[in-house]
Design goal:
By secondary structure, this protein is of the alpha+beta class. It has 9 helices and 14 strands. A hairpin with a 2-residue loop joins strand 10 and strand 11. The longest helix has 28 residues.
């Protein structure tokens, strides 16, 4: 009976082995394609393994995000909201707005999509300007605060019509996730999506190895020419976002002013964190928390991470001697490649 059973099972085993070999061979022969361009005022680079060119579809998805969330697009939904027009909010806008409000609540306002007027006043946003004085900062703070905006009957309602929404600290991450989801829905298993430094990976790279992403060493580099690595992380099947004060800053009167603005004070943060890298299951979340941690500082950020074991963070900060030091979540240890 055992011999007869084995004889019947043998063809199925052979088919299984042959099928597995064919699948593996196909995965090795399907080439990796590249898609690059400009979106959200920055560049994107996407590598994906597929037997067809998906560049047009990728670009179309990113343009949907742009027309929903880019304040630089005069036809976007967020521009209409900022101009107090009666506009229909689409699913992308609603998803980002609701996630932003949730993270704002969780971080006690460290993340705030209404901070644009003060960011602009400091010269880091839509226009450059001189350093604002205390009176100007106090005046602008009246238009800042995530609790001053809400959704009601599918519309954004503002306490003050001058309030502006700026999702730049979450939109790139959201767009990166949208592109990644598009590839997954097309059956692509191996890819890397990068938009302005925000990243989502899946599977393996074109060398059949896990995706490894470098974390740049934070040195004053406003021209973005330094690419020295602090560490390299294994980030396969994760989203990664980094926020830092070492590339967007200016000096005035011998003082350095970084681009991260504390929504509560209206001033650039003076915390010791130089760079915050966050790994999460989706890139919008990673993007928003990376910005939040830059505002909160090291100790407050650690407390948030204690509440969120699903998040992993890698902080580079300046210690009491002014030397660069590193702190990372215990769960991040297995992700550090070198």
């Amino acid at each position: 009976m055992n011999k007869k059973k084995l004889i019947w099972q043998l063809p199925f085993l052979i088919l299984l082995i042959v099928g597995t070999v064919l699948i593996i061979r196909q995965q090795h022969t399907i080439p990796f394609k590249r898609s690059e361009g400009i979106i959200f005022g920055t560049t994107y680079h996407i590598a994906y393994q597929c037997d067809s060119d998906l560049s047009a579809g990728i670009k179309a998805e990113l343009e949907k995000v742009d027309v929903s969330l880019s304040p630089f697009n005069p036809q976007s939904i967020i521009t209409a909201v900022n101009q107090n027009q009666d506009v229909k909010l689409n699913d992308m806008f609603l998803a980002v707005f609701q996630k932003a409000m949730s993270i704002s609540e969780d971080t006690e306002g460290a993340f705030d999509i209404t901070v644009a007027p003060i960011v602009n006043a400091w010269g880091f946003g839509f226009k450059n300007g001189k350093r604002p004085d205390r009176h100007q900062v106090d005046s602008l703070l009246q238009m800042v605060g995530y609790k001053k905006v809400k959704l009601r009957d599918g519309k954004v309602v503002k306490d003050d019509p001058r309030i502006m929404l700026d999702c730049s600290a979450i939109a790139k991450g959201f767009g990166t996730q949208v592109a990644a989801d598009f590839l997954r829905h097309r059956g692509v298993k191996n890819f890397m999506v990068e938009i302005g430094g925000e990243i989502v990976t899946s599977g393996v790279n074109d060398n059949r190895l896990p995706w490894r992403i470098g974390v740049t060493k934070p040195v004053d580099d406003s021209l973005s020419v330094s690419q020295e690595m602090q560490t390299v992380l294994n980030v396969t099947d994760k989203a990664m976002a980094t926020s830092g004060n070492y590339r967007n800053f200016y000096y005035e009167g011998g003082r350095k002013f970084a681009h991260t603005i504390d929504p509560k004070t209206g001033y650039p943060v003076q915390h010791s964190i130089l760079s915050a890298t966050v790994l999460a299951d989706d890139c919008a979340t990673a993007d928003a928390y990376a910005t939040s941690f830059m505002v909160m500082g090291l100790e407050r950020a650690k407390k948030v991470l204690e509440r969120h074991p699903e998040l992993m963070a890698y902080f580079i900060y300046s210690d009491e001697r002014g030397q660069n030091a590193v702190w990372f979540s215990p769960s991040m240890k297995d992700k550090i490649a070198e």
